[in-house]
Amino acid sequence: MMVAGLGLPLTVALTLFTERRGWPAGPKNGLLVAGVAALALFYRIWPGPDEAHHLIRYLQLSAGLHLLVAFLPFVDRAEPRGFWQYNRRLFEAFLRAVLFSAVLYLGLVVALVAIDKLFSVHVTGETYGRLWIVMGSVVNTWIFLGGVPENLAALEVDDDYPRGLKVFSQYVLTPLVAVYLVILTLYLGKIVATGTWPSGWIGYLVATVAVTGILGFLLVHPLRQRESEGWIRTYARWLFIGLMPAAVMFLMALWKRIDPYGLTELRALGLLLGSWLLGIALLFTLRRDHGIRVIPVSLAVLLLATLFGPLGVTGLSVRSQARRLRAVVTRNGLGGHVAPREPIRISEDDYRTLDGAIGFLLAHRDTTSLRDAIGGSPPGLDTLADSAHGHDRGRGRWRAGTDGVTSEIVAWLGVSPESRRLADTRSFGLTVRPDSPALRIAGYDYVMTVASGRSVRALDGADSVEVVSDTAPNRLRVTHRGETLITFALDTLLQSALDDLGPGHSGYVALPAGRLHVAAEGNGYRGLLVLTSVYGTRTRRGFTLNVWNGELFLAVPR
Questions:
Q1: Vertex 238, ends 288 and 172: CA angle to 5°?
Q2: Contacting residues for 78 by C-beta, under 8 A, at least 6 apart
Q3: What is the mean pLDDT of residues 200-220?
Q4: Burial of 360 per CB tally in 10 Å (0-12, 13-18, 19+)
Q5: C-alpha neighbours within 13 Å on the C-beta side of residue 188
């Protein structure tokens, strides 16, 4: 079904391509048959969406084929106005199809519910799901195709421009883009002032401003030459100037992950798309009158050219992870056909690299690159790889489950088990045991429920205080008018409890209430913090609290 879905944009693009050139039925049908044969080949070699890298490849191909619809009929035609009018009609047809099919679906859902409730005719939940599939894949597509222009050659002399598009671009998209660019500019100033790397979250904002900004630019592109629409030229100039530092910040944030952890398909795709965005911004900044066709054409070429082969995002990622793995093996004297007699203790970072790179190569079934990187072949590597993925030769489906197999390969390399213990990130959870003896509480005036990530204002009048949770330093503060009165440090309490459980502990355990409380005092205030639950992760370097809850007992000065 998913591969058949790729046939929708592919056959539409090929049909429009042949119709525009007036091909007779024979060559036209031959090209369509070739397209369907290509889909059949993809169906044969694509294992399905069970694993992330296979799903990424599908989405990448789908995006590339949809972009073909945007430019293939005009690929060798110097008709800028016709190209814009054609895509404007496709855009309107898409919006109309989504609206009509959604309204039709909701109307039919109401009708089915009415039949169910009024006539006691049971309508199963599957019926609504199947109706959604029919509306989304058949009716929506049918309505969309009804909006595709028939005479593409006549569009070059069509100067019609819907006022609604101008209003939408000028009063909806442009203000949004302006807000996004201001935020990005301020964030750039913060980066320069503080000397910190940009956050990885910036990718979402850069993607939003790129899609919104370029869409707005494309929608108003025919109006840029009108004297009364000077705002469009200003918008376009500052849009692409603003996109350049945004793309650079995105690439910097991405490199912060690539440098220590290597490439994966998503990182490789992000690197390619960030570079493409930077290139488009540079092009339209230096050549303001450049044709807009380069935008969909270059993006489609980028997506389709990196699907398979040595330049594919999977190929780039596999080579990156293999290089990281080979570097660790060489640096620590591991590998070879015979493991060292004495286990070698390696650093935490090197163990993480081994674990991640081996798991990545196993997930991609690339045992050849794995053998080359580790300098040999552990006994039964192919069998181990099959067991890691739960390979079913009848269906050809693979399910990632490489942890145990990775450990076997790391052990074959001669790495000390101590290295894994030090490098492991283990989750832990501590809760109060239900049969714990009651805590004796005396001498406190107030009790309040507190939790991580939440600030609470408590007490009244002059006694009013604020309880502030600082998750990063693992502490709880009681403040009054901005001044800290008491600080509860959770580190000492939890470190003691975790040490009692042993350095290799992971998972959840219930403790007596007396093991999960800490007292503090200051400025005449006294407090007792009793934790009821705490969840986090721990490594050799310490632990991180994710969520905690508890009760705070507070005594105020008289």
A1: 110
A2: none
A3: 90
A4: buried
A5: 17
- In this structure, are residues 487 and 520 in contact, taking their beta carbons and an 8 Å threshold? yes
Does the pLDDT value for residue 368 go beyond 60?
yes
Q: Mean pLDDT, to the nearest integer, of 339-366? A: 83
* Average pLDDT value for the chain: 85
Residue 460 has which token pair? 């009244």
Q: How many other β-carbons are positioned within 10 Å of the β-carbon of residue 454?
A: 12
Give the β-pairing of 507-511 and 426-432: parallel
Tell me which DSSP letter residue 440 carries: P
Q: Determine the straight-line distance between the first and last CA of the chain, rounded to whole angstroms.
A: 74
Select from 169, 249, 182, 183 the least CA-distant residue to 212. Answer: 169
Q: Are 313 and 268 in contact (CB under 8 A)?
A: yes
Please report, as a single letter, which amino acid is at residue 290.
H
Dist. CA 470–CA 553, nearest whole Å: 18
The pTM for the full model equals 0.75
DSSP 201-258: THHHHHHHHHHHHHHHHHHTGGGTT-GGGHHHHHHHHHHHHHHHHHHHHHHHHHHHHH
Query: Can you count the helices (H) and strands (E) in the chain?
Result: 19, 10
Which pLDDT score is estimated for 505?
55
> What's the pLDDT tens digit per position in 470-489?
655 677 888 877 788 888 88
User: Could you identify the residue written with the tokens 């494309």?
Assistant: 218
